[in-house]
Design brief:
Elements: E1 26-32, E2 38-44, H1 49-59, E3 68-72, E4 75-76, E5 92-98
Parallel strand pairs: 1-5
Antiparallel strand pairs: 1-2, 3-4, 3-5
Amino acid sequence: MSATPSARGSPTPKTKPEPSSEKPDVISLTVKSQDGNETTFRLKRNNRLGKLIKAYCQANSISDPKSIRFLFDGTRINDEDTPETLEMENDDRIDVMMEQLGGY
């Protein structure tokens, strides 16, 4: 009997995955109040910003989150928004303004 060669072939060498050019999964965002105080938060790109708003209000003893407005590039931030949907980058700044009613 003669031996037949194996059909396996040579093993392929394992390579390290190339570093992706994607944005990092966790980013830092700075929240700046009207009086100039800054607070930095780290969160995942796909986390809702409502979580950041709630944490900011707790840290600053704000009982009603609806009494203040969070703005990114002049656009109001909603609880359902995420850093990814607003195309935020690491070290971006969110402005906090007191809610004002009326025009006088």
